[in-house]
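Course exercise 7: structure representation. Students receive a sequence record and must write out the corresponding structure in token form. The form below is the worked example handed out in class, using Lipoprotein (151 residues). Read each field label carefully; the graders check that inputs and outputs are placed in the correct fields and that the protein name is recorded exactly as given.

STUDENT ID: A-19
EXERCISE PROTEIN: Lipoprotein
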Amino acid sequence: MKNHKVRLAVRAWVLAVITGLLATGCTDVQVHPVDRDQSLSTICIVVNPAVEVSDFVDVLRAGIARHNLASQVVSQEASKICQATLTYTALRSWDMSPYLSYAELHLWRDGKPIGDATYHLRGKGGLSLEKWEGTSTKMNPVIDSLLSQYH
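STUDENT ANSWER:
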């Protein structure tokens, strides 16, 4: 009887540890949406050559288009003629294959910040299988929140 109670206690402890490890894979998203009074029509996406997430800009463009806004991809130098610019950072982590673990979006109008968003996979996803979801699955809700005032 005593061994049975010990085994149950050990199983409960193991289950608690596994649950804790899985919970470390939580996603943290923080968004300061763009106000509707910004009257955006076109957003210039400033290329960040340091980003190695191959479909990141395509996901940004599709997300912007979902909000009935135009976009164009420009260099840092060419962005000076744009009214609204979007700068970004995206980082990959690796666990059997690369996956998006962190991204920042900053939206500017005439050189002043008008909105930003951050996607952060806490603990690089831990044991969560969601860490391997695609860029669009992770970033679409972030982009939609950032541009929520535009439909």
